[in-house]
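in:
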């Protein structure tokens, strides 16, 4: 796989940004860690309070934020190829709505954090199966049909979410609303999301050339020997799985999967061999920095990270729309 030198430099810059974002996340907060204190902890020494703060609290949360952002951005890039729409995002097919219904139902029943995450994952997968089954029907499906089905299913999930919020007890509403806005406060381990991210990158990168052809249309892809039906189904399954795991980890975090791949396409072009890894690195960096900002903006209180991504995403998206006129 040959990639131009300027693309290699861009990926190297994004990798440096990712490392910097993770270092900022683990050192900045109510207790700021210096470089010497961080190095001492990494060597196995240092103050016990600093070890607990870094290894038990900040590092898992920073890892979960980076993995979640990378999954959302990668899913958004795949959705944009699948639907051949540069404004598609991971939630366009109602996956976040299904996950939200599952998570909020578990909260109403008084389940713990593990059951809430599991219910969110099951809800997202059920939504993916429902949308795909309805869009396919008795014959084949098209991107337009898939998109319209997803919009209708998402509207149905929205009605159920409003119902659950209406009947929920007052003492549980703050937690439910925080989950809907996206919150990493209860993120436990980043490893499931990180392992999925690595596995999907290993699977998706070799298919970069086929995805480039698919983005130009199914007829041209079929004429060049690309197995369009199986490739589209594979992209849908991968994007749905990425979104399900991301939503399970951090709730419904908006705009990361929309603005990151869209902005990278404007800067780097439309080569999926570059866009996919670049989206993962940029999305992870963005959500890591946004989560750090949400922790320190009104400390000791914390904001849902979805609020920060929305404040960043809305003006950025409007600027992109204005620029693309």
């Amino acid at each position: 796989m040959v990639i131009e030198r300027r693309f290699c430099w861009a990926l190297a810059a994004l990798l440096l940004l990712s490392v910097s974002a993770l270092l900022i996340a683990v050192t900045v907060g109510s207790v700021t860690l210096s470089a010497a204190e961080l190095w001492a902890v990494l060597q196995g020494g240092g103050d016990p309070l600093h070890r607990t703060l870094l290894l038990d609290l900040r590092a898992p949360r920073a890892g979960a934020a980076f993995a979640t952002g990378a999954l959302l951005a990668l899913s958004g890039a795949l959705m944009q190829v699948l639907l051949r729409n540069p404004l598609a995002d991971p939630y366009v097919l109602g996956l976040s709505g299904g996950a939200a219904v599952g998570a909020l139902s578990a909260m109403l029943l008084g389940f713990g954090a593990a059951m809430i995450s599991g219910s969110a994952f099951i809800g997202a997968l059920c939504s993916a199966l429902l949308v795909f089954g309805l869009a396919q029907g008795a014959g084949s499906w098209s991107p337009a049909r898939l998109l319209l089905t997803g919009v209708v299913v998402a509207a149905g999930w929205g009605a159920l979410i409003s119902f659950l919020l209406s009947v929920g007890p007052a003492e549980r509403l703050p937690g439910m609303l925080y989950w809907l806005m996206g919150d990493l406060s209860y993120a436990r381990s980043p490893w499931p999301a990180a392992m999925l991210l690595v596995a999907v990158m290993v699977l998706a990168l070799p298919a970069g050339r086929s995805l480039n052809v698919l983005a130009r249309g199914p007829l041209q892809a079929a004429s060049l020997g690309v197995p369009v039906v199986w490739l589209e189904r594979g992209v849908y399954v991968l994007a749905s799985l990425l979104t399900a795991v991301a939503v399970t980890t951090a709730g419904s975090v908006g705009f990361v999967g929309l603005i990151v791949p869209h902005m990278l396409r404007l800067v780097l072009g439309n080569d999926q061999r570059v866009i996919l890894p670049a989206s993962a690195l940029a999305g992870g960096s963005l959500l890591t920095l946004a989560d750090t900002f949400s922790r320190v903006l009104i400390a000791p209180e914390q904001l849902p990270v979805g609020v920060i991504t929305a404040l960043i995403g809305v003006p950025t998206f409007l600027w992109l729309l204005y620029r693309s006129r």
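note: The chain is about 75% helix and 0% strand.
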